[in-house]
Amino acid sequence: MYKKIALNVGLAVMLSQSAIAAVKSTSTTLAATNGSVDGGNGNFFTTSVTGLDQFNAALGTLTGVSFTVENAYNVNGSIYNVFVNDDSLDHEIAANISFQISLSKVSGNSGYFFATGVDSIQISCSDSGQDACTDFTSESISNAYSSTEDGTNKLQTNNLFNDFIGTGQVENLELAFVHFSDFQFEILSANNLDTFDAAALLEFEMGPTLIKIDYTYTPVPLPGAAWLFGSAIIGLIGYRLPKRNSGFTF
Fold it and tell me: CA–CA distance from 31 to each of 157, 169, 205, 208 (Å)?
């Protein structure tokens, strides 16, 4: 009886183990970095990310890839070279300068962002004259950043999933600081001035930056012989248990 119970327990454990998802993580920390992004839409600064291991297929079947990025940053935003069409009129300029921090996966001429955090700086200037807001009117912002994203679907859709499987390191990863350049400039005056030109500059410091990848996978089941061996050991233990006393004494 004990042998039968042990065998059933062993088989149940074997079946349950083959269906349980497991997670394996790899991480790296980038040193603090700084830079600047000036000008138009989509301008960005990147620094290479190394030290993240691929998923070893010997462990099982990879089913998911999740990315985490954590750091702190300080960004100074400036507007300059503002030109209005009448330097004698009062005017007000308001700018919402947006940026993002992301982990980017580069593929050929394309790139895909993961674990993205978005922030912005609001800058305003009120004065009169053509040169009113040309002297780098600026504001600063400091913040902490932590973002996690399940990148499985995006990687599979763009045929990048297999890039994370192997026995080496993940290649073509970058930490990106992206300047949206969606300034939303407004010039307000009694005469509704609407002719202007302007530029924006973002100077930043960020890091150290923690970057982590979590691999979700289905483990390779242990060989059947190993489960049978374990069941046999349990059975032998059960076989050697003493018989219970019937409870009657004479």
Answer: 32, 19, 11, 5
Q: Is pLDDT above 60 for 231?
A: no
Q: Across-strand partners of 90?
A: 128
Residue 241: strand pairing partners: none
Distance CA(200)–CA(97), nearest Å, equals 8
Q: Which two tokens stand for residue 132?
A: 């009113």
Q: Which residues contact 204 (CB under 8 A, 6 or more apart)?
A: 34, 35, 36, 37, 45, 73, 74, 75, 76, 99, 177
Over residues 80-118, the pLDDT tens digits come to 766 655 556 666 677 778 899 999 999 888 889 999 999
Instruction: Report how far residue 49's alpha carbon sits from residue 115's, in angstroms, rounded to the nearest whole number.
Output: 14
Report the b/e string of 120-148 with b at 16+ CB within 10 A: bbebebeeeeeebbeeebbeebeeebebe
pTM of structure? 0.75
> What pLDDT digit, counting tens, does each position of 181-197 carry?
555 455 555 555 555 56
Query: For residue range 148-171, what is the model confidence (pLDDT) as tens digits?
Result: 999 999 999 999 999 999 999 999
Residue 134 has pLDDT above 80, yes or no: no
Parse the chain into domains and list their residue ranges.
25-219
As a dihedral over the C-alpha atoms of residue 62, residue 66, residue 69, residue 70, rounded to 10 degrees, the angle is: -110
Tokens found for residue 85? 């069409």
Residue pair 76/139 in contact (Cβ under 8 Å)? The answer is yes
Whether residue 101 contacts residue 71, with contact meaning beta carbons closer than 8 Å, is answered with yes
